[in-house]
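Example (one chain per record):
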Amino acid sequence: MTSESTINRRLKEYDIKIGNTYSKVEQELLEDMVSRITDEYPNSGYWTVIGVLSAKAMHILYLEH
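Predicted structure:
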């Protein structure tokens, strides 16, 4: 088994950062972005909206339907 100190040392050695990979965004801004996406792509569904947000580097945990 690899020790925690070895893992931490390797993470530092290879400049690997572990943290939250989701974007922090205000609800109002997210709603505005979703509205713009659905205006541009009127037939878009949930996964299309998620895909467009991801393409814009907006990684969100979930959207409420």
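Caption: The radius of gyration is 18 Å.
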